[in-house]
From TrEMBL:
Residues of the ChsH2 C-terminal OB-fold domain: 48-115
ChsH2 rubredoxin-like zinc ribbon domain mapped to chain residues: 17-46
Recorded coiled-coil stretches: none
Residues spanning the membrane: none
Protein name (record): Uncharacterized OB-fold protein, contains Zn-ribbon domain
C-alpha cells in the first residue's frame, strides 16, 4: 500500500495526523509544510502534527471527473470537497467522505480518515489518501 504523498502525514498516539508547519515567531500554521511563513515572512518554521478534528467551513459536491493524475478509480462518482477549519490552526482543503448535500452543513464536526484513492498504483497495491468524515453521532 502506498500513499499519495507520504510527507503529508505523521503518526500520533491518536492516529494519523496531517503534518504541517508552525512559525515559531508568529505561530501561523501552514499545510502542507513550508520553509517560510506566509504571515510574517520569517523562516523559523517547525514541523507539527495538525489537529485531527475540526468543523466543516464550506463545501461542494464535485460531479465531474478530475483531470489526471487526480482521476482516482476507473469509475467516477460525485464526491464532496470542502474546507475543514482546524481550531486555532488553519483551513485545510480536503476530499470529504460524504457527498450527500442533505448530510453536510457548515459547522459539521469532522475528523481525519485515511481512504483508498486508487485500487492499483502500478506496483500492485492500493494508493491511499486523506479525507475528512463527519464525526460519528455528530448533530446533523
Amino acid at each position: 500500500m502506498t500513499f499519495v504523498d507520504d510527507s503529508l502525514l505523521t503518526e500520533t498516539p491518536e492516529g494519523p495526523a496531517l503534518l504541517g508547519s508552525r512559525c515559531t515567531n508568529c505561530s501561523a500554521h501552514t499545510f502542507p509544510r513550508q520553509a517560510g511563513c506566509p504571515r510574517c515572512t520569517g523562516s523559523a518554521m517547525e514541523d507539527v502534527p495538525l489537529a485531527r478534528t475540526g468543523r466543516l467551513w464550506t463545501w461542494t459536491v464535485q460531479g465531474f471527473r478530475p483531470k489526471p493524475p487526480y482521476t482516482g478509480t476507473e469509475t467516477h462518482e460525485p464526491y464532496g470537497v470542502g474546507y475543514v477549519e482546524l481550531a486555532d490552526q488553519l483551513l485545510v482543503e480536503s476530499r470529504l467522505t460524504e457527498s450527500d448535500p442533505d448530510r453536510l452543513r457548515i459547522g459539521l464536526p469532522m475528523e481525519l480518515v485515511i481512504r483508498s484513492f486508487r485500487d492499483d498504483d502500478g506496483g500492485g497495491g492500493p494508493t491511499r489518501t486523506f479525507a475528512f468524515a463527519p464525526v460519528t453521532g455528530a448533530d446533523r
